[in-house]
Amino acid sequence: MASRTPSRPLEPWRWLGVPALLAIVATVVIDAPIRIITLALPEPIFPMVLAFAWAVIRPSILGPVLLVLVGVFLDLFMGSPLGLWPISLLIGYGVALIGRTLMVGQETEVMAIYYGAASLATFVSAYALVAIAGKGHPNLIALMWQFAATLVLFPLVLMLRDRFRDADIRFR
């Protein structure tokens, strides 16, 4: 039997602060002007990983508060209407939170389906909010590429879950 390291308490700066800073850094780095045959790379929404993982690992009031702050950063960085990404990320967090009890003990594929559903809810709400705000309709092809790029980030959710697995007794 493999020995496991003893569980450490879940300190907010370890499971909330560090991943939030990494998501911000990843967002800035991926925005580098790299072009392939005059096409820009799709920019995934890295905080979606946080919205999903935090709801699954251990819901707390600090997660949504940090999602709002990271969402405001996304709005300012991407030039989107203020409030777009905080609201959209909170909707994705809510979808993940609703499915949390159904995901516990399930295979990775089930969690991937829920991540896809939470991401879809996030992007549909972002599209609807932009349309409602009267800013026009976003380009659906670009939105689908961004959605696909965000779905590819699912292994990061698994990394976060595995990193903090011992801190939550449901995963033991």
Explain how this protein is built:
- The chain is mainly alpha-helical.
- The chain has one domain (12-29, 42-167).
- 66% of the residues lie in helices and 2% in strands.
- The protein has seven helices and two strands, in the order αββαααααα.
- It has helices at 12-30, 47-57, 62-78, 84-103, 108-132, 140-151, 154-163, and strands spanning 35-36, 39-40.
- Strands 1-2 form a two-stranded antiparallel ribbon.
- A hairpin with a 2-residue loop joins β1 and β2 (39-40).
- α2 (47-57) runs parallel beside α4, α4 packs antiparallel against α5 and α5 (108-132) packs antiparallel against α6.
- The longest helix is centred in the C-terminal third of the chain and has 25 residues, at 108-132.
Could you give the topology of this structure?
Elements: H1 12-30, E1 35-36, E2 39-40, H2 47-57, H3 62-78, H4 84-103, H5 108-132, H6 140-151, H7 154-163
Antiparallel strand pairs: 1-2
Helix pairs in contact: 1-3, 2-3, 2-4, 2-7, 3-4, 4-5, 5-6
Summarize the structure.
The protein is 66% helix and 2% strand.
- SS element count, helices: 7
* Quantity of strands, as a count: 2
Counted up, domains total 1
Major sheet: 2 strands, antiparallel
> Low-confidence parts, pLDDT < 50 over ≥5 residues?
none
Provide the gyration radius in Å.
16 Å
What features would you highlight for this structure?
172 residues; mainly alpha; two-stranded antiparallel sheet; 2% strand; 2 strands; globular; 7 helices
